[in-house]
Amino acid sequence: MASGVTVSDDCKRTYEEIKKDKKHRYVIFYIKDERQIDVEVVGARDEEYDKFLTDLQAGGAGECRYGLYDFEYMHQCQGTSESSKKQKLFLMSWCPDTAKVKKKMLYSR
């Protein structure tokens, strides 16, 4: 197993496009050749959470992935009648029980 996993420039760029520019709804990352985290799928801004979950698991029962999702919701502060739109970024790790131990260890770092 590789001693260190790096992050590709494409990952960094896509992360910024989600966080700052709100260009995409989500991104799925994978570890390429046990050496570098790279972008696998980018979800359009109008994609739903169910599509994110489908893409996260698309590699199959033996594959692990990372997923970054930009969650939007309406929030009403207590004591007010106005709601405002809020956004939170969630980073998830998908490691199914059926994945090989080596893969799970690689993604657990």
Automatic annotation (TrEMBL):
The keyword tRNA processing does not apply. The keyword Coiled coil does not apply. GO terms for cellular component: actin cytoskeleton. GO terms for molecular function: actin binding. SUPFAM superfamilies: Actin depolymerizing proteins (SSF55753). Gene3D superfamilies: Severin. Residues 4-109 form the ADF-H domain. Belongs to the actin-binding proteins ADF family. This is ADF-H domain-containing protein. The lineage of its organism: Eukaryota, Metazoa, Ecdysozoa, Arthropoda, Hexapoda.
